[in-house]
Specification:
By secondary structure, the protein is an all-alpha fold. Helices cover 83% and strands 0% of the residues. It is built from 19 helices and no strands. The two termini are 26 Å apart.
């Protein structure tokens, strides 16, 4: 391996580790915010985060187009065309994000809205400035990545994560939810200034419209549509809760979402690390998707067996842990238990999406994502109309996630050469463990954990027994689904230092 390749590999691993670290800090921020704030204030924080999440979609595929166009222009060696596409990307991002911000402020200014009552126009304006800072920084990080500066991305991620979350937590103890917002504002601003300085040799600072402005959107649109639909689908339940059940209900539900994010740490790591491996194998085989079949099968079945185990333990211990650590959020427990089982669907959808992008079938993602998003919206509205409350919304979300995961997995399996009945067999094998775990938990809660969680030795003992019964029972019935997966090797490949290191010491590299 050449010194340049070694450096690139080292920088890529550093970026991966940094992303895991930033995610961990963000999750800690979420749980500490729930601990310190009341459900109403925590719901308000979740609501403003939703606005910022959707603001990331304002550039309409410009970043996805930039990721494809800049490397091609670098290879061409035409400096003027390269600079023109960069300036066009800056123009798109500034114009579209400012347009989003104006629309957001106008919406909040007309009549009454929960967002305005929680934050007033000052808070909304600060959040929209954060959106602008992030979208501009994304142009810079895309260009840095195209020029091979992975180390710059790592430092940018650390700055935004540590300052945005760390400073926000410190200020939260003084100013409540406003401290979280101002901390995030400072992190976004510092991270943007760093990117502008780091990319000063390769990033033009003057936006300029050009024909490439449309090219960027057109080229990036398929992938953008899928990403946008995924973001909408992942956040739709919180929008429904905020719209129909109120800010305080969103505070309770937001804690459930934090737990779901925690459950997704290892599956997301496996998919993140596997994506470049898929691309490399597919390229080396000169476009033969069947070379990915065995690893896709192992990953899909491994996550489908491992996630229900973790979700089941969350469902058992959630009442006890919340009552012990976050007693103000007892109302979130029912939704938390239900939503945990949607993690399997999210993991399968994430894996399937990178497979479809790898084998050149990304266009399939567009109609699939739009249909599944519409399905999710319909289920959640029905849950509200049937007075299902937070558990009903969580059940609708979990069902939508599972349908999405199974549908995309079937499409991905076809893309790597799996045919006919074998596709159905794979989908069923991935779905059955979650169904079994859900039924087992329903029985355990009905027959054994019927009383509210109490902080005493008797309650603790019942939870320990319930965990053992669930784990052993699910392990026994899942044996037929586990053959040939190689769990230790999958964990060793996760890229998470503690998890992968422990798996290797246990002999994962020989699995």
């Amino acid at each position: 391996m050449t010194p340049g390749a070694k450096r690139l590999t080292r920088d890529s691993l550093g970026l991966a580790f940094t992303q895991y670290l930033v995610r961990a800090i963000s999750m800690v921020r979420g749980f500490l915010a729930a601990k310190v704030l009341d459900p109403m204030s925590f719901g308000a924080w979740n609501a403003i985060q939703l606005m910022m999440d959707y603001g990331a979609l304002a550039p309409l595929g410009t970043q996805q187009g930039l990721d494809q166009m800049v490397p091609a222009r670098i290879v061409e060696g035409d400096a003027e065309r390269l600079a023109r596409v960069k300036r066009a990307a800056l123009f798109n991002v500034v114009a579209l994000t400012v347009g989003f911000a104006i629309a957001g402020l106008a919406w909040a200014s007309i009549g009454s809205s929960r967002m305005r009552s929680n934050w007033n126009l000052t808070g909304i304006a600060v959040a929209l400035l954060c959106v602008l800072f992030i979208n501009l920084a994304n142009v810079g990080t895309s260009i840095l990545r195209s020029h091979g500066d992975i180390g710059g991305l790592t430092k940018w991620s650390i700055l935004q994560g540590l300052i945005g979350s760390g400073l926000g937590l410190a200020l939260m103890f003084l100013f409540g939810r406003w401290g979280l917002l101002w901390g995030w504002f400072a992190g976004c601003l510092v991270a943007l200034l760093f990117v502008l300085h780091r990319a000063r040799q390769v990033l033009p600072l003057v936006p300029e419209p050009a024909v490439e402005s449309l090219d960027l959107v057109q080229i990036g649109l398929p992938l953008y549509t899928y990403i946008a639909s995924s973001i909408v689908m992942r956040n739709l339940d919180r929008i429904v809760v905020l719209r129909f059940l109120g800010t305080e209900a969103l505070g309770y539900y937001g804690l459930s979402v934090n737990v779901l994010t925690l459950l997704m740490a290892i599956p997301d790591a496996l998919v993140y690390v596997s994506y470049p491996q898929f691309v490399r194998l597919f390229s080396e085989s000169k476009g033969d998707g069947s070379v990915l079949r065995e690893r896709v099968d192992r990953l899909a079945r491994g996550m489908s067996v491992g996630i229900p185990f973790a979700a089941g333990l969350v469902a058992i211990w959630a009442p006890y842990a919340v009552h012990l650590l976050l007693p103000k959020y007892d109302a979130s427990v029912s939704a938390m238990r239900v939503l945990a089982f949607g993690a399997t669907g999210i993991a399968l959808a994430s894996l399937a999406s990178v497979i479809l992008m790898t084998v050149g079938r990304r266009i399939i993602l567009v109609p699939a994502a739009l249909f599944l998003t519409a399905l999710s919206a319909g289920l959640q509205v029905l849950a509200i109309r049937w007075s299902g409350g937070l558990p009903g919304v969580a059940a609708a979300s979990s069902l939508a996630y599972l349908v999405s995961g199974c549908t995309l997995l079937a499409l991905a399996a076809a893309g790597v050469g799996v045919t006919g009945l074998n596709i159905l067999t794979l989908v069923v094998r991935c779905l059955v463990p979650t169904v079994l775990a859900t039924l087992a938990l329903a029985g355990i809660h009905q027959m054994w954990l019927v009383e509210p969680a109490r902080l005493d030795w008797m309650s603790l003992g019942r939870h320990v027994v319930a965990s053992a019964v669930f784990a052993i029972g699910l392990l026994v019935v899942s044996v037929p689904f586990m053959r040939g997966i190689g769990f230790r090797s999958l964990l060793a490949e996760s890229g998470l230092p503690v998890v992968s290191g422990l798996a290797r010491r246990l002999g994962g590299s020989r699995s």
